[in-house]
Amino acid sequence: xxxxxxxxxxxxxxxxxxxxxxxxxxxxxxxxxxxxxxxxxxxxxxxxxxxxxxxxxxxxxxxxxxxxxxxxx
Length: 73
Prior knowledge:
Blueprint: H1 3-22, H2 27-42, H3 51-69
């Protein structure tokens, strides 16, 4: 596995943990993370992550940051 792809997977795991901790109350975040997971399944792990994956990861991380900043209900 490519080192950059490994980094992407580690960042995805932290987003998965956030989703597990906060639940699926934020549909946009859950959908963005789901789209990222689907794209990773189709990707070639021996090469650099394509722009599509980096864009999806950025979107999920941005939504995750706003979710992390919200108070827990």
